[in-house]
Amino acid sequence: MRIGVYPGTFDPITRGHTDIVARSLHLFDRLFLAVAPNPRKEPLLSIAHRVELAKIATKEFPHVEVEPFDGLLVKYVRDRGAHAIIRGLRALSDFEHEFQMALLNRKIDEQLETVFLMPSEEFSYLTSSIVKELAMFGGPLEDFVHPEVANKLRQCYTKHP
Ligand code: PNS
Question: What residues does ATP bind to (predicted)?
């Protein structure tokens, strides 16, 4: 059985992320979507909310498990018996950081591969940050995120304008 780990901050999960989930399931039998704290970013949503929304947004996909994770990604991947890390690559601007992470992870574990998947063109410009900015200014969200994610974001910005 081929097991993949799709890690990220998912603050919040977007349709670009779920597009990568769908593509991953063509390559892997089972997928762990791992929601990370990421100290380099200050997430809008708590990890519990990000996990909850990721579960809702991926409920149509069988063989996907959403979990919070903290600590070293390589260790998490090993603990799950997974074979590869999956990352979405949208544009050239993603490349340098992704390249660093993939090589660092491989340095820690020589056996570990990172698989880069390109999202559908329609999501190639989509980021969680853009979605949050749209939400902050009351823009339309349903084309970019699951309706329940859209509702949650609107609530956040109504409470904290
Ligand atoms: O969605 P993001 O913010 O690009 O995800 C980044 C993430 C969570 C995959 C990355 O920060 C990560 O792997 N964090 C876990 C800690 C770790 O193992 N760091 C070393 C590899 S960079």
Answer: 9-10, 17, 88-90, 98, 123-129
pLDDT tens, per residue, the chain with 161 residues:
999 999 999 999 999 999 999 999 999 999 999 999 987 888 999 999 999 999 999 999 999 999 999 999 999 999 999 989 999 999 888 899 999 999 999 999 999 999 999 999 999 999 999 999 999 999 999 999 999 999 999 999 886 54
**Domains contained in the chain, number:** 1
Q: Is 136 within the bounds of a domain?
A: no
Q: Which atom of ligand 1 is nearest to the CA of 85?
A: 9
Concerning whether 17 is annotated as a catalytic residue, the answer is yes
* Ligand 1 pocket by Cβ (under 6 Å): 7-9, 36, 38, 41, 72-73, 101, 104-105
Q: With contact defined as beta carbons under 8 Å apart, do 112 and 77 qualify?
A: yes
Domain that holds residue 110: 3-124
